[in-house]
Predict the structure.
Amino acid sequence: MVTNLSNLSAASLLAIPEHSPERLFGGGADDIKKAFRLLAMKWHPDRNSEAGAHRVFQHIKCLYEKSEERLEARRGGVLQLAAVDGKHYEINYLRCHRFELGSMYVAGTVAAFVIDLAHADLVEAAERMIRKLDYADDRMRQQIAPHLPASPFAGAFRTAHAWVIVMRKRPDQLLLLRDVLEHLGGRLHPRHVAWVVSSLLNLCCYFQHAGIAHNALSLDTCFLSPPDHSVAVLGGWWYAARLGERMTAAPA
């Protein structure tokens, strides 16, 4: 997080990507609000007549809103869901992250994806792809399967407004890559980058073998196991396709 906010230039502020608001706003709710007020006093178009002030202020506002969302996500809570078959489910989650299809709730042993019914075709595509994951032999299965979603899902049901897909985290201590980076201030030590990249390359080699294009490897779809120095890809399967086939949809 930047400490001397008043000295930041327009170029420096605009260079902060929207997915890294922690580079500008950090700390608790009061710290974030205080920093935003300070920046608004300098860059709000009503106070700043420079030609690019409006653009800079809009970018600051976007970063502020994303910081507020992440602060809310860190609070955790209880997700209560009523399935259309009358059953009720409750998930005690640690983090909540919104994404283009709905929301992801990261709990101690599972990751639950709540996806708008309008995207039912993507849910079905993911289920088909995961169900058909195959391996050349038992050794490959032992090495790769723990780092991919299990089929059948740990849970799958429909509510009045959404599909809910529950994937078990194997091992339980898996951490979302975005959460790890946020905790570490946006940077991983090079030695950790090395095993993350190595593990991802291993999974990509498997995808090539299996004829799969995942199409959505990102901070919000990859989970880390620091003790095992490994990566699991639990999210983003809505966009996966067989090599040479058309994608059902592309990530936003």
The helical segments are 10-14, 29-43, 53-74, 120-131, 138-144, 177-183, 190-210. The longest strand covers residues 88-99.
